[in-house]
Amino acid sequence: LIPTLFIFWLMSPPPKYYSLFAVSLFTILMSPLLFFDLRHGWTNLKAIEAFFTTNKDIGFSVSHYFSNVSSVLTMISANLISAKNIFLSFSTLALFLLVLIWVYKNKKFKSALGILVIWMITGILGISLYKGPIYDHYLGFLFPAPFLILGAVAQNIIKNKVWGLIFGVYLLSLVFVNSVNSPVLSAPNMQMPRAITVARVIEEKANGERFNLATISDLNNRDVYKYFLMIWGDKVVDTDPSSTQFTVTDQLFVVCEKPREVCDPIHDPSAWITNFGWTKIVDEWEVWGGTLFKLGHTK
């Protein structure tokens, strides 16, 4: 957001009093973060520095950059606005491009619509520098802009009966497809109740003894189960290859969230499993659509 605000500030510099007030208000709102960093050795500042100086996901590649620009545009027009409807996605993308052309042609960059366009452009060009995978929630700083642009277009186009009617049909279509495909209508995945249920079974099968824990999953790591086991006071121990004598127990519980036929806890490359040593399956249970394995050491 900083480039957007700075560009607009340069184009339409407000009175110095307003700028001072804005900076002061921003400083007050961010003061808890500042105090936190002061107390914890500038943790966040160092993390930001490390991210931009050592992170492999930051850098510039022409082909990858333009591929990212295309992907982000698609994410905004398809995922955010059009509920992944192909026809409406293309319509939305075309509308944004027409708005950009109109703002440029009429030199309206200092207008309210102009700042929204600048917001979109700088945001898309900025996030596209990221070389790692870009997910929808990474665009949170851009979320308001496309909806405000649609509102601005509606405010101006409604004066024309023909184009106003066409745009009205387009908006009603957006409302319909987003309502039909709303996540609210999907069944909940029940992540927390599932984690609690699985953790209770682990607690029962551990019989109060020390145990190690691992998962085989594409979505969750062991922490979702470890959290409940720890607050319940169970003796879950993290394996440490430098201290196997004290951290490797006699039993390892492995939660496999994949279909049973592809679960192979003995040969899985997870460090939490390999650190346990040579293993054999002692027992297994089906719990909430997954499989819980109890592994022991081979003699």
Helix/strand-derived category reads alpha+beta
Number of strands: 4
The percent of residues in helical segments reads: 55-70%
Question: What low-confidence regions span 5 or more consecutive residues with pLDDT below 50?
Answer: none
**What average pLDDT do the residues reach?**
90
**How would the global form be characterised?**
elongated
Number of helices: 12
Can you put this structure into words, describing what you see?
By secondary structure, this protein is an alpha+beta fold. The chain is built from twelve helices and four strands. The protein has helices spanning 2-11, 16-39, 43-54, 62-81, 86-105, 112-127, 144-157, 161-180, 191-206, 223-231, 244-247, 271-274; strands spanning 212-216, 252-256, 279-287, 290-297. The chain has a four-stranded mixed β-sheet with strand order 1-2-4-3, covered by helices on one side. A hairpin with a 2-residue loop joins β3 and β4 (290-297).
